[in-house]
Amino acid sequence: MKLFMRPSSVTFVPTSLAFAAVCLFSATTARGQSQEEFELQGGRRFPAESVKPSPGGGFTATITVGTALQTFNFTAKEVTRASLREPKEISEARFLIASDKPDKAIESLDKVEPALVPFQSIPDSWWLRATILRMDALSVLGKNKEAAAVASADVFGKLTSENTSLLKDFQQVVAPAGKNLTEKLDTLHAMEDRIVDSWVGARIWLEIGNTLAMQGKMEDAVKAWLRVPVFFPAERDLAIRGTILGARGLQQIGRAPDGEKLLKDYLEDHLASPYKDTIQIETAKLKPKDPKTPPAAAPPEPTETTK
Questions:
Q1: pLDDT band at 292 (very low <50, low <70, confident <90, very high)
Q2: Quick check: 108 pLDDT over 80?
Q3: Which H or E run includes 253?
Q4: Parallel, antiparallel, or unpaired: how do β-strands 79-83 and 37-40 relate?
Q5: Who contacts 293 (Cβ-Cβ below 8 Å, separation ≥6)?
Q6: CA distance 100 to 89
């Protein structure tokens, strides 16, 4: 039995085909980003390796023109596009959060963020993604108030209007739910239609599931979590998080075998998944424990009091 839920207006794509689409997307993205560069207004382009932050807050690009080196100065506002590959520390942070190691993800982000800060005003900079992942990791650790406070008013003043809007929206995603969970859900659903960033859009549905679970509506929470692997398969770190949360939710409503099957099916459809170990650990948690009868002559051992 398939456990994925979908609205009737959307065509269902089998998970195996979705995985093929992910592979195609990844390959296309890799080819598109093979040439790292900055593009300025007017169409001038500079190879990324030639661009360095300047002391005044702008940038310099030193390139060979003819037989001589020339240096060009420009500001972040002149940049229309930056095509840069994802830093390995950010990729690692995604993996660690999905593997239930958000504290380690923050350590990985600590290593790369200082180098990204000078580029935070660049459109779609990797600084923005690193900041969003830090907020996400803190929220997974239960530090929602701290997560929402990561982006300050001072930071917003340095970003493009698009990046500012996205970061402010994500603040609301990770912010503490408070007592009015219905209001939180209304806020999340209002974002759902206007967010164009696929990763943030997927993360919104994880949060909708989390909030429904807090309301005690576990079946609805499972449906929300499972929207992520179905409709956002390219966001692999969030797709596996949605699958795992869905399996845990099924266990809580007395459907542990369905949760176990959900995880096994995901692994079968994603044979090369980097989350194989994580999935297997989660699957083992759902299996019923074999009852063990202690030897009759064995004295009872002291147990630790659970606080």
A1: low
A2: yes
A3: none
A4: antiparallel
A5: none
A6: 16
Are 249 and 221 in contact by the 8 Å Cβ rule? The answer is yes
Q: What is the DSSP letter of 81?
A: E
Q: Give pLDDT tens digits for 72-102.
A: 999 999 999 999 999 999 999 999 999 999 9
What is d(CA 270, CA 14) in angstroms, rounded to the nearest whole number? Answer: 12
pLDDT band at 107 (very low <50, low <70, confident <90, very high): very high
C-alpha span between 85 and 32 (Å, rounded): 10
Per DSSP, what are the bridge partners of residue 63? 70
Other Cβ atoms less than 10 A from the Cβ of 132: the count is 23
Q: How far is CA 302 from CA 71, 147, 174, 290, in A?
A: 74, 41, 42, 21
Q: Are the C-beta atoms of residues 95 and 274 closer than 8 Å to each other?
A: yes
Cβ–Cβ < 8 Å for 162, 123 = yes
Neighbouring-strand partners of residue 97: none
Alpha helices (H) in 38-180, listed in sequence order? 88-98, 102-116, 126-140, 144-148, 153-156, 161-174
Q: In one letter, which amino acid is 77?
A: K
**Candidate from 29-43, 96-110, 184-198 with smallest mean pLDDT:** 29-43
Distance of CA 121 to the CA centre of its chain: 21
Tell which residue, 98, 94, 134, has the closest CA to residue 114: 134
Cα separation, 275 vs 237, in Å, equals: 9
- Higher-confidence position of 77 and 17: 77
The answer to whether the CB of 18 falls within 8 A of the CB of 233 is: yes
Which pTM does this prediction carry?
0.80
Encode pLDDT of 126-172 as tens digits.
999 999 999 999 999 999 999 999 988 888 988 999 999 999 999 99
Q: How far apart are CA 137 and CA 144, in angstroms?
A: 9
CB burial readout 251-270, b (16+ within 10 A) else e: beeebbebbbbbbebbbebb
Point out which residues pair with 47 in neighbouring strands.
Answer: 37
Q: Is the pLDDT of residue 304 over 90?
A: no
